[in-house]
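Subject: complex prediction, re-run

Hi both,

The earlier run crashed halfway through, so I resubmitted it with identical inputs.
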Amino acid sequence: MSASKQLFALLCLFLLVSCAATTPANVVGSGTQLETRQIQTRRYDTLDKPMTMRSVIATLQDLGFTIDQADTELGTITATRLHEYTMRMTVTVVEKEGRQISVRANARIGERAVTDAETYQDFFVVLDKALFLTLHKVD
Amino acid sequence: MRRAFHTLLLIACISGCAPTIPKAALRLPESTLDIRAIQTRRLEASSEIAILTATIAVLQDMEFNIDRVEKSLGVVTASKLSDADSKGEKASLFFLDMLCVVSSGRSCEASSTARDDQHITLTIVVLPSLVGIDEYSVRITMQRVIQDKVDRIKVLERIDDAETYQNIFDNLRKSLFIQEGDS
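This time it finished cleanly. Structure:
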């Protein structure tokens, strides 16, 4: 095959590939569903939902976030921190059976999702302290 | 040699794409207690609605727009876009321009190049105090993004200046006083 034919074939292939319907990139996320949930979720039985949400807001404020939106009914709180980089977090507080409260947090830094367990562990350590303070009626 | 170069290039590409999440992104800094003290006050008010109304009025006084309110959680989120240059900075740039005119006969256009915009976002959380009756815990957090004329981000920071927070709390106390007097 001559060089010009090879080039033509390559061009055709490129056009075919570019015309094919492609899945939008980075919509579904990269982690496995169950693993991601485990890393991002903790269960508590110390306080009710409103008081847990109060503690979550205090935690986010301690960590330097401002609250973008909060919804008591759905239990969602979204917050942003501007410090060297932009970090966004969404925390959901859901009532479970047996007076348990599930708290799930997910975070992104700029375009990247935070996937490491250690960072989420750090968040829950701060939340544990805030829950303790709320439980013992410290503002 | 060429192979080594390609290997190096590949490593550089891979490491360049790898996400670098800061290790202590969600750890409490040592200054947390000091910052919390600057950002928090306990105020007396007749009701939760009264203190929330006074808070919103103060934000309007400060020319903020209210983005969201979640009454049951006492969360008020507000923001404003304003000029980031202080009067002092503007005056010095004006004098720099004047100096250019005097020395070279034409302006350096320092004043026109230095106009930065700042987008300030603020959250006020007003909740019944866990300690006292008719008392409310008020905590303010603020941060800002400063962008230059061509929208390049120059500063991305939390506002920690104690005086700024104190001024807002003073205004809130005044707002509560005026409101109680009106009713």
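The longest strand of chain B covers residues 135-147.

- K.
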